[in-house]
Amino acid sequence: MTIQFNCPNCDALIAFDSKHRGKRARCQTCQQLFIIPYTDDETPRKIEPKIEKGEPIPGFYRAVFVDSWRVFIDRENVTSLAFVAAAVCFKFFLARAICCVNYITFAVVWGWLLGFYLNIICETAFEIDTLPQIYLGEGVSFLWNIIKPFLIFAFTLFVVLLPFIITLSLLQDKGLTIDNMWQPEISLRLLLQLLFILGLFFFPMAILTTAIGKDLTMLRPDYILIPVFRAFKPYLVVAALLVTVGVLEMQTPQYAGLAAETTLLTAGKLAFNLAVQIIAIIAMRSIGLFYRHYSCHLPW
Fold first, then answer.
1. Which residues pair with 2 in a beta bridge?
2. How far is Cα of residue 251 from the mean position of the Cα atoms in its chain?
3. Which helix (H) or strand (E) holds 6?
4. Pairing of strands 33-35, 45-46
5. Residue 25 β-bridge partners
6. Spatial contact of 157 and 198, defined as CB atoms under 8 Å apart
7. Collapsed DSSP state (helix, strand, coil) of residue 46
8. What is the pTM of this model?
9. Which residues partner with 45 through β-bridges?
10. Of 21, 41, 200, 297, which sits 20 to 30 A from 155 (CA to CA)?
């Protein structure tokens, strides 16, 4: 049985299976948190985010490394996990497609996955411990749901790497480029390397600010730096997980379509791709959990 009702904030029509009655959820249109009502057309109760400026909530490491695994065995997440697996398989098998199909597939899958990641961060931060509901949209909204996450991640990455980008542009007349900056020399290359690594290190806090604040103007140095230094050790865990996902994702092999490739080898490659997505979900949850447990250190 399906329950239909309107969002208490933007009035968008929302539908949920009746088994979710009384649980927290989020409007995919305006991101408003609410309690799913028990009957059709009943007005759901809004949930206003609570930012408590007190002490950190204990249990961060357990929540990341133990509790996060529950999302993979929760029956409520079957649809979301199946969709993630289907998207990964879609990207995997069409990696060698012709006529630019592989590029289109890459853009569609990663646009959806990045949006899914943003929703995981946001919902985990506000104590929703199930995976986000699947919403693709139609027509223009479908395209925007793919393009928007790309823009958010790209702009956020640009902001944290801005000191590196400016320094690199100023040092180009000295022959330093992004291709030769990693040569093992103690020179200005070391400065570029440090700025690049620091930019990536602060990226999880920046994307958390973007995901929660829903405002790119919140990418201010104090909003990013203060929570990191006040909760440095747990933030190291968050940053390490995200870097691990990035490194593994760059190493994921795609389907080659070669006659010499055995079915077992293809299955192994696909399993590796799926395993990386499992780690990615845990990494995104760790970002949301950082907000949940250490929001007392956030200046916003």
1. 17
2. 19
3. strand 2-6
4. antiparallel
5. 34
6. no
7. strand
8. 0.82
9. 35
10. 297
